[in-house]
Amino acid sequence: MSSARTVLITGGAQGLGAALSAAFHRAGYRVGVSDIDEAAAIACAEALDPAGETAVGFALDVRDQAAFEAARDRLVALWGSVDALVNNAVVTVARPVLEIDPDEFDRVVQVNLRGTFVGCQVFGRYFKERGVGRIVNMASLAGQNGGTATGAHYAASKGGIITLTKVFARDLGPFGVTVNAIAPGPLDSPAVRALVPQDKLAGIVAGIPVQRLGSLDYVADTAVHLAGENAFFANGATWDVNGGLFMR
């Protein structure tokens, strides 16, 4: 069996997810690209490796525990083991807090927070049994400051992810498993440009100390860094990548 490491990325077919998939593949990982959009996941994986030897795409609804277990088992059957999980699947809705329907609140939290919990739990058990593993959760600046261009459901879910990261990190740390979060500020991505009107986006950029939107590739490279074999002493942390918008 090859010594190459294997990663499962959720929401891995587009935007930040596609950048994550590409970054891990560049770093020599075998990449499981999962997404609610199966066709997009397969296309992303084929773009990384048309032969399908080092990248595979498939559908995954992160809310479903059995589906997460099946994804894990598929990668283990294909490549022998899984070394890292990146919980990136997300629903983003921008809506004033007094206009959010409770059902919409539930839908956003189900994907963002429940999905991260299920992934951490399914792979936490697997990694604990193996005695080693890396989990990287995608949080957000919105989970730290309440958000400015996103909805309260999105911000609350991301804040919850930061807390879940600490809980899993504490409980899994003694077993060789680390759990960390990355909290990006506004990124230069199609999702941000679609979400924020151009005139408002200019004001957001002006308020960032570095005067630029963030880089998808840099955030993805940070995830690769946290997933490394030698990253055993980074645990329970939230890595801020926000251009200086939030400092502590």
TrEMBL record:
Entries under Gene3D superfamilies matching the protein: NAD(P)-binding Rossmann-like Domain (3.40.50.720)
PROSITE patterns registered for this protein in UniProt: ADH_SHORT
Molecular functions per Gene Ontology: oxidoreductase activity, acting on the CH-OH group of donors, NAD or NADP as acceptor
Keyword Amino-acid biosynthesis: no
Entry-linked InterPro entries: KR_dom, NAD(P)-bd_dom_sf, Sc_DH/Rdtase_CS, SDR_fam
Alphabetic keyword roster: Oxidoreductase
Boundaries of every Ketoreductase domain copy: 5-189
UniProt keyword Metal-binding present: no
Similarity comment: family membership: Belongs to the short-chain dehydrogenases/reductases (SDR) family.
Record protein name field: 3-oxoacyl-ACP reductase
